Structures are given as structure tokens and as C-alpha cells.
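Researcher: Next entry in the queue.
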Amino acid sequence: MKQEIVGAYLVLENGVVKKNLVIEGDRIASITDHVDSSCLIVEAEGKYVFPGFVDIHCHAGGGYWVQDEPQRVADFHLRHGTTTLFPTIAYTVGFDDTLKGIDRIIQASNTSTGSNIKGINMEGPYINMKYGMASWNARKVDRKEYEQIVECGKGFIRLWTVAPELDGEREFIDYLNGKNIVVAVGHSEAPGELVMELASNRKIRLATHTMDATGCARTICAGTREFGIDEAVMLSDDLYAEIISDSKGMHVRGHMLQLLLKVKGEEHLILITDATEFSDVDPGSDSDLFFNEYGQLAGSRLTMDAAVRNMRKHVNADLPVISKMASGNPARLLGVDDEVGCIQIGKKADLVVTNDDIRIQDVFMNGSRLRMN
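Model: Structure for this entry, 373 residues:
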């Protein structure tokens, strides 16, 4: 039976309009002013309808790691509006557990009713040991190892973070490009010039959690600053930039978020959660930071609805701009924008209904309304 969401404000790519939205099967069928009596009516007067959120960097949810319980993690984040998820295996996970985790994630994605798991993100393990939480778990590039990981992934690995200044990384980057895996720079102190070169050749396309776990070369003149990764990310028109937007601006300060939006523009910023095992937070809570036993800022407790809420607060941008960061831009980067990422006739009916404070009211995935309780 067709469904019609009525009375809502639709957050489109180019503005917000008060229209009704008709869902037929798993697709958006029409956007209209009329109410179709043959439809199942979903009353949403005064609510906002966003395209489903796309989280490309998420390690955990509901108290579980993605490599251990991917379905539980996916379900947790689905309730917070993430209808497209790329579970992320971190550099802290050993080789054997990485292979087991990849297999579990692939199995979890193959459900008869459809899954919000659409691929795998590998954050390392071949990163600079100077940068990031528990970065002593990083390993040197090992061709035999990464070829085995990619083979295990069966084409499901879509994104991989590297530190291009390290030995063996340039060959690794070329290998990943040959496998159509998007390469990100992160946990790195690569010179800005190297980042610009790789970006201009489209060998890297993304910066992993910009302004976090990055460094630059030692200055050649006291009192001056070198051109490092973060500066290269801001300068390059070829790079997308991930952003962790927590409520207190601890990962990225509020003014820095404003600077990134001003310099990079709305088309190249991507909101992520970087959620950790401890991301099971009471609904409506702003306790979205986590520090590990060593006092290190260790990912977040974020969900995508909270990240959207926080970004809106920090940069005071219009909802279509924030929606691009949470849905459209990540979908375009990872090549799923033909199906998801914006509200458009013919695209999947992956939708998030919120109140004006961006608190979740309803979630639709593949046209099916999620039972929230």
C-alpha cells in the first residue's frame, strides 16, 4: 500500500518546502500538495523530513563494536536516522579479528528485508604511530596482509585511511585505487604539498576526521607554521573533509567548524559520528564525548541526529546545508548517490522525520516505517 507523509517540511537540496511526500514500495513516488485517500496517511504536521543520514565512519553503537556485533550496531544507529552505514574497523583491531569482523559485517548486510550496512571502512592499521588514540596499535605496511584483507572483503571495502608519508604507503595507495577503494589521509603528518599532489591526482579523496589526529612537519623557522595536512585539506578543491561535530566542540572547535564551512564550502564537508563502543547514550543527551583510560579523546558517543543538531548550533547554517553534510556529500563520495542522499522522486524512501529541534520522530528505510519502540 502507498504511504503519504502529510503536513511536513521537506528538506530538499535547494531549500525547505511544506509538501506531502508519497512513498510507493521502497521509492519516493511523488512530492505533492494533495492528499491521496488511497494512501496510508502518516501525519507529520510541522515536522521536518530529511533524507536518511549516511555515516561513513562509525566504529560502534549500543555498547557493541562493529566487528563483533554489526547487526546490533546497525540497528542502534538506524533508530537515530542512519539509513546508510559504513561500519568502520579501527587500527586497534588485530589482523585475525579484522578478517572475522569483515566476514560478520558482510553477513549482516545480506538480510532478506534489506540492511542499512552498505560497505566497510578501514581506518588503518597502516597509520603514523604518533597520532590518534592508542596509536601504538598501528602497524607497518604489509602487502601480503592488506591483499588478504581486500580479498576477504569481496569488494565490500569502500574506504581506507592511510598515512602517505610512511614507507610502502604510495604503493598501497596505488593498489587501493586499482581496487576502486576510496583513499583517505589521516593519522598522519604528511607534508601539505604531498597531500595536495595526491589529491590533485585523485589518489586520495578524503581527510579522515579533519583537525583530529593530524600533525605537520617541524617548522623550519621558529615562530612560523608549516603547511600541513589540515591546511592542505582547506586549500584543496579535490578533497572532502570528515568532521566530528560534538556538542562542546572538543573534536573541532566551533569557530574552526565555521572556518571549514567558509573555506571548503557546503559541498565538501561530511559529518561523521566516529562512534565508539560507548555510544549508548540516553535519548536527548548531549554527553557525546568519550575519554579512554589513558585520558585520550577516544572517538565519540555521537549518533548522526546529534551530529546534525550540533553542527547546526555551531555554524548556524540552513537545514539544506547541514543535510548535504549528513547525507548528500557522503553518498556522492562513496558512489551511492544514485539511490540515496537527497529527497528526490525515484530515489529510495530512506527518510528521517524530526521535530524542529532535530529529535527523531520517525525513520523510514526502503519505504518501511521503523518501529521506534
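Model: Residues 6 and 43 are 5 Å apart (CA to CA).
Researcher: Noted, moving on.
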